[in-house]
Amino acid sequence: MDQNIITQLKQIAGKDGVLHTPEDLAVYSYDGTFEEHCPDVVVLPRTTEQVSQIVKLAAQEHLPVVTRGMGSGLAAASVPFSGGITLSMTRMNRILEIDEANATVRVEAGIVTADLQNAVEKRGLFYPPDPSSVRHSTIGGNVACNAGGPHCLKYGVTGDYVLGLTVVLADGRILRTGGKLIKDVVGYDLNALFTGSEGTLGIITEVLLRLLAKPTVARTALVEFSALANASRTVNAILAAGIVPATLEIMDETALACIEAAMHLGLPLDVEATLLIETDGTDEASVVREIEAVAGICRQCGARQVRVAANEAERANLWKARRSVSPALARKAPNKLGEDITVPRSAIPEAIRRLKAISAKYGLPIVIFGHAGDGNLHPNILFDKRDPEQWQKVEQMVAEEFALALELGGTLSGEHGVGALKRPYMEKALGPVSIHVQKSIKQALDPLNILNPGKVFPD
Amino acid sequence: MDQNIITQLKQIAGKDGVLHTPEDLAVYSYDGTFEEHCPDVVVLPRTTEQVSQIVKLAAQEHLPVVTRGMGSGLAAASVPFSGGITLSMTRMNRILEIDEANATVRVEAGIVTADLQNAVEKRGLFYPPDPSSVRHSTIGGNVACNAGGPHCLKYGVTGDYVLGLTVVLADGRILRTGGKLIKDVVGYDLNALFTGSEGTLGIITEVLLRLLAKPTVARTALVEFSALANASRTVNAILAAGIVPATLEIMDETALACIEAAMHLGLPLDVEATLLIETDGTDEASVVREIEAVAGICRQCGARQVRVAANEAERANLWKARRSVSPALARKAPNKLGEDITVPRSAIPEAIRRLKAISAKYGLPIVIFGHAGDGNLHPNILFDKRDPEQWQKVEQMVAEEFALALELGGTLSGEHGVGALKRPYMEKALGPVSIHVQKSIKQALDPLNILNPGKVFPD
């Protein structure tokens, strides 16, 4: 990178805010995927104004700008394949305002989401979206990917909480959207446009979020099904009864076997699926009535056993199983590749059947768990990346996973985004007209194509 | 209009699908506002394909295309000030599919929203958004304006239910967005972009909506407050307790006096405000517990009286009051002009105080009611349009209403949209950067500016 540009970046962000040794660059070369590419320089801004100046310089020099939070993304959206400037937002991690009367919080984009959650919970407030990365991913990254999580069936995804954004545009201008307003139909919905745009339309530097009152009571049940089809039928029956549990998570037999082998929690190994179901609220009697109604529906739909946690310790144990999936997989094989395909929820049994067929065809395990109420499944392929033959199989298997999702009326991603990895499948998923419309929006907002180039869209 | 174009339009939409006599055109010259302008021709398409062909012809001839449903809009968004083609969507009113397993419905854009609601309710499903025009406005218009309603505090606005759209673009291409997917983060959120775009980015011809299970139980309370500030405090206290009522409507003393004069329902005339609060669900005990908790909070916050309806007849009577606001206003003055400003909900008492000051300053009544939980108020100015002096005052009063909303951190519209009427206030509301970003999206998607020209944006 041109020394003159480095000098200018240091003038903007301070000497300690610019990294450019090979060792430093390597730290910012990867995310939660297997992809890797070094940026030419890393800048760690402390203010929106600094971001604006950095982008103005990048626009002048036609340099790519790739924004990242903690680099936990699962679609390689923040891997800087074209080099250029990587903006690390982690120093912009302040809480700017908690407004209790209006139940909102304004934060800088680089705050870790769990830190934000803890801060508002101290005031009796609640920010529900809970991606599994919640303890290390940043809210800016969550917004840029429109992150989900187990709580999102009842409470909605990240985008449902975005009331306003501060965004640095591709020419360095600062855009402010929204406000402390539940309803706002003045002009186009720019909050929604930037949410999920994966750093390709602007750089999110501040986020204003809607909050709820913190639920004070929860009841949790683990439900065993000998037949997968009955688990799926149960999901529909619960929702049709007007009950929207806080979580409604499915784990198939492969996931259960993995977790049990690692954790010895006494999980059933002779079932096709379990559902982990939680109800919550602020009124204990109502929450209890709801889990009892859920239990009744489960039994009617052919559940073999319904275990409602009798106390907090039992509840923690049930959650331990769900939260142990990823570490348990790590013990089972050197590598895993988890996708997040989404299908209409009635198609879940067929999706799982086809995933098992893909696993059998290639001879590599696929462990299946996910958010059954949302139709959002996480098939995880277990393999050893050192074996090139296995890696080739994995790539073919992923392509088949995406194909089955589309065939069943679903799509490529419910939570992770497109990034670099799903670009080849975009045209098939959305069709040429949608791609053209989206590219024309990208072109209108970033005519030099400097913001996260080479992401989201096929070439 | 060129006879040749009329002939081509008849070839596309059939002879009975094209209207061009002055009498016919006059019928399509106005909406729910005081604005009026005749189109040059009205076309009533029956299919998306016909809409596509009409728009291709319009693009070729550089003719404006203004789409309308039932013309109930309150911002003159469908008044064709530039003439051209008005597309009336009312013949595209079919229900295409109700999918019970996935709880979705697919409809043509011209269906009246209440017809859609009734059809899904017969299957035990529920489409919650309930603008007061629900019995005559169309779902296409609701989506184009992102309509709200009393139910939207608990259930969300129209846009929260849009899973997919069929849209005819400005060059006649047909775009299909979304699917039967609760979570979908593949590419930009085009559903959200077209929702609320008021016919300026594309023509919505089909809508795929998410549905819920129909609530089977409701409890309703009318709560009287001697002091307005206590009513507002109560709203915050209820939400802070983790209770989200199905409705939380406020009526001030002017609204109560109007309704009582017209309807003789025994409403209190010596209070500053009432709240109409409803809880609903599928479990009677929980719904009852919730309204009892609400009643307790109301009393703690200084309510003078809490009347919970003991039966369905009493409940109907309470709703009668809320639903009678508009007809009652019509008896009080020849004309009314209702806005839908939105403020952070903590600012409601100050907003009402300032609205009363505007009323006093100009000597015309402002009746205030609205969705207190959302901060969305409907100040209605009562006047006689035949008196030019009064009309001039009304225009000044509206400008002051918008100014106060912006000063309190609010915005111009929570439900009605910008249309033609709020354009002069857009730059002040959103700032030049936001307007420029939005105009660049408009330019990218409609380079000839034929889709509802002269709407939403300032010149």
List the helices and strands and how they pair.
The structure is a homodimer of 459-residue chains.
Chain A: H1 3-13, E1 18-19, H2 22-27, E2 41-43, H3 48-61, E3 65-68, E4 85-88, E5 95-99, E6 104-108, H4 113-121, E7 125-126, H5 139-145, H6 152-155, E8 162-168, E9 174-178, H7 190-194, E10 203-210, E11 212-213, E12 217-225, H8 228-240, E13 247-252, H9 253-263, E14 273-281, H10 284-300, E15 305-308, H11 312-323, H12 325-332, E16 335-338, H13 348-362, E17 366-371, E18 376-383, H14 388-407, H15 423-445
Parallel strand pairs in A: 2-4, 3-4
Antiparallel strand pairs in A: 1-2, 5-6, 6-10, 7-11, 8-9, 8-10, 12-14, 12-15, 13-14, 13-17, 16-18, 17-18
Helix pairs in contact in A: 1-3, 8-10, 9-12, 13-14
Describe this protein's structure.
Two copies of one chain form a homodimer. With 459 residues, chain A is of the alpha+beta class. Helices cover 38% and strands 20% of the residues of chain A. The first copy, chain A, contains 15 helices and 18 strands. Chain A has helices at 3-13, 22-27, 48-61, 113-121, 139-145, 152-155, 190-194, 228-240, 253-263, 284-300, 312-323, 325-332, 348-362, 388-407, 423-445, and strands spanning 18-19, 41-43, 65-68, 85-88, 95-99, 104-108, 125-126, 162-168, 174-178, 203-210, 212-213, 217-225, 247-252, 273-281, 305-308, 335-338, 366-371, 376-383. The mean pLDDT of chain A is 96. At the A-B interface, strand 9, helix 7, strand 11, helix 8 and helix 10 of A face strand 9, helix 7, strand 11, helix 8 and helix 10 of B.
